[in-house]
Each structure stands twice: as C-alpha cells, then as structure tokens.
C-alpha cells in the first residue's frame, strides 16, 4: 500500500489546528476547529482507503474498497449537522449578549477559588454520607408506577373481551355484558376440555 506522505502531513496539521481552535472560548473558533477536525477525518478515511481502484461495476479486479467511502459520506453528514447546530448556538449567543465568547459563571469562579483544604473537607463529607445513603423505595410495598384496570373505573364502558384465566366460571365472575358476543363463555368450555 502506497500512501502519499503529503496527505498524512496535511491530515496531522488539520487535526492539530482543529484541536487548538476548539480549546478557545470563542464559539466561532470552536466552529472553525470542528470543521477542521471534520476535514481531517475525511482525509484520514481517504488515507485508510489505500490505493484507488476501479468501481465495482467495472469488474472484479483492482476494485476500490467501498467501506471508507461510505464512512466518509457519513462523516460529511455528521460534520454538516453539527456545524449547523453550532451556527445556531453562535447566532443565539450573539442575539443575547452581542458576543460569542463563553464566559465564566459564578459556579466556575467558586470552583477555581477552592483550596486543597476545602477539597479535603468535601471528601470527608462525601465519605460520611455514604453510610446513611438510602433510596426512596426501600421497604416500600407499592411500585412507583400504578397500573390501572378498567374494573377500577365503573363509569367507562369497555366492550373488549376480558382477560380471564382458563377454567374460570363466567357466571361467578359477575353479570355478562349484554353487548358481548359470547366470547367469555367460550373460554370456560375450552378450559374444561384442557384440564
């Protein structure tokens, strides 16, 4: 397999520049970095493909590998979708604050100002809290999801056949529905034949 050294160098430079640009606080630079990473990925897949060959419909000798081509198409679509999403974020950020930079909020500043002593105190508090940890469903007989049945709502008329176990007597279960077609009686006859 003969791969061009120029493609490898260009791919490495694109990856390095893309990662460097994505580490910035400006969303526009993050977008440019992501686009550079997408193009570097396409070059990587082109390099992986190896020596170009014929299309599969020209014959069976020296055929090009179709998998990297399909992966390249997928990478192009993903890069386009994320680029559109980042453009929407940049536009909304510009509408709200007339800037596309990500600023520190109060939680970030408080986290940066914490000392090692504060970290040790918080670690000790976490260790003590693990012993008393309980869940909401310990020793609770009811499930968090309640299943409602049609028999719980007498005001709703249900004409669907009911689920009865085989071999039960429909007369003991209650009065039959006058609109039913006799489906309930059949279950008891078949149940007696099976037992």
UniProtKB/TrEMBL annotation:
<dbReference type="GO" id="GO:0005886">
    <property type="term" value="C:plasma membrane"/>
</dbReference>
<keyword id="KW-1133">Transmembrane helix</keyword>
<keyword id="KW-0472">Membrane</keyword>
<feature type="region of interest" description="Disordered">
    <location>
        <begin position="149"/>
        <end position="195"/>
    </location>
</feature>
<feature type="region of interest" description="Disordered">
    <location>
        <begin position="112"/>
        <end position="136"/>
    </location>
</feature>
<feature type="compositionally biased region" description="Basic and acidic residues">
    <location>
        <begin position="149"/>
        <end position="162"/>
    </location>
</feature>
<feature type="compositionally biased region" description="Basic and acidic residues">
    <location>
        <begin position="186"/>
        <end position="195"/>
    </location>
</feature>
<keyword id="KW-0812">Transmembrane</keyword>
<feature type="compositionally biased region" description="Acidic residues">
    <location>
        <begin position="116"/>
        <end position="134"/>
    </location>
</feature>
<protein>
    <submittedName>
        <fullName>Multicomponent Na+:H+ antiporter subunit C</fullName>
    </submittedName>
</protein>
<feature type="transmembrane region" description="Helical">
    <location>
        <begin position="6"/>
        <end position="23"/>
    </location>
</feature>
<dbReference type="InterPro" id="IPR039428">
    <property type="entry name" value="NUOK/Mnh_C1-like"/>
</dbReference>
<comment type="similarity">
    <text>Belongs to the CPA3 antiporters (TC 2.A.63) subunit C family.</text>
</comment>
<feature type="transmembrane region" description="Helical">
    <location>
        <begin position="30"/>
        <end position="51"/>
    </location>
</feature>
<dbReference type="InterPro" id="IPR050601">
    <property type="entry name" value="CPA3_antiporter_subunitC"/>
</dbReference>
<dbReference type="Pfam" id="PF00420">
    <property type="entry name" value="Oxidored_q2"/>
</dbReference>
<keyword id="KW-1003">Cell membrane</keyword>
<feature type="transmembrane region" description="Helical">
    <location>
        <begin position="71"/>
        <end position="91"/>
    </location>
</feature>
């Amino acid at each position: 397999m003969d791969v061009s050294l120029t493609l490898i160098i260009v791919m490495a430079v694109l990856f390095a520049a893309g990662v460097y640009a994505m580490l910035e606080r400006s969303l526009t630079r993050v977008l440019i970095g992501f686009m550079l990473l997408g193009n570097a990925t396409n070059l990587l897949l082109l390099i992986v493909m190896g020596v170009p060959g014929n299309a599969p419909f020209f014959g069976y000798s020296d055929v090009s590998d179709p998998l990297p081509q399909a992966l390249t198409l997928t990478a192009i679509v993903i890069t386009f979708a994320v680029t559109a999403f980042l453009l929407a974020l940049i536009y909304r950020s510009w509408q709200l604050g007339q800037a596309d930079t990500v600023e520190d909020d109060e939680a970030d500043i408080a986290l940066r100002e914490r000392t090692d002593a504060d970290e040790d105190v918080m670690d000790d508090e976490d260790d003590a809290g693990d012993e008393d940890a309980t869940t909401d469903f310990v020793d609770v007989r009811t499930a968090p999801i309640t299943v409602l049945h049609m028999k719980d709502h007498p005001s709703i008329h249900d004409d669907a056949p009911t689920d009865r176990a085989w071999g039960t007597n429909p007369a003991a279960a209650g009065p039959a529905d006058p609109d039913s077609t006799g489906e309930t009686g059949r279950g008891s006859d078949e149940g007696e034949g099976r037992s």
